[in-house]
Amino acid sequence: MTASSQAPLKYLQAYPQALQDQVHQLIAQDRLADYLQQRYPAGHQIQSDKALYAYALALKQDHLRNAPAIKKVLFDNRLDLTHRALGLHTKISRVQGGKLKASNEIRVAALFKEAPAEFLKMIVVHELAHFRESDHNKAFYQLCEHMLPGYHQLEFDLRIYLTYNELKASSFKLQAVSFELQATS
């Protein structure tokens, strides 16, 4: 079976087949973890919502001083399951007296607590960019690239990381089923 005829990589479907084939090759050679570890060896210490808020606020101050204030930034355990997203920027409007008040929140999938530092920064930059550009258009991605040079490569590598995590989880499930079958035999 050639790499291009293997199962599709759901996080990489929008990328050229040649890149998908390279990832399939890394998977077949059991080198996906090595690739990620070599490129992104460092984790991060941001484990609480308070630390994540401070981190996002610092990035906002560096790049988006005139953007609206952030009311809340937090890790969300349900985010990737409920919204099929890794991060979420919400603008909540409330009527207060005769005025309309808006507050901005950023939710980051909890899986980023364990992800390399560069991936956490990439997702926070992505959500902050929505303060200026609501759509995923050319201006949005230019802003992301301005705030985080190499953004596009990080986004691609994040998709490889998600693929790796999914493969690892499915392998663990297969091992558990195999163990159960052996125990019942």
Automatic annotation (TrEMBL):
CDD domains xrefs: M48_yhfN_like (cd07344)
Pfam annotation, one family: YgjP-like
YgjP-like metallopeptidase domain ranges (all copies): 98-158
Name by which UniProt lists this protein: YgjP-like metallopeptidase domain-containing protein
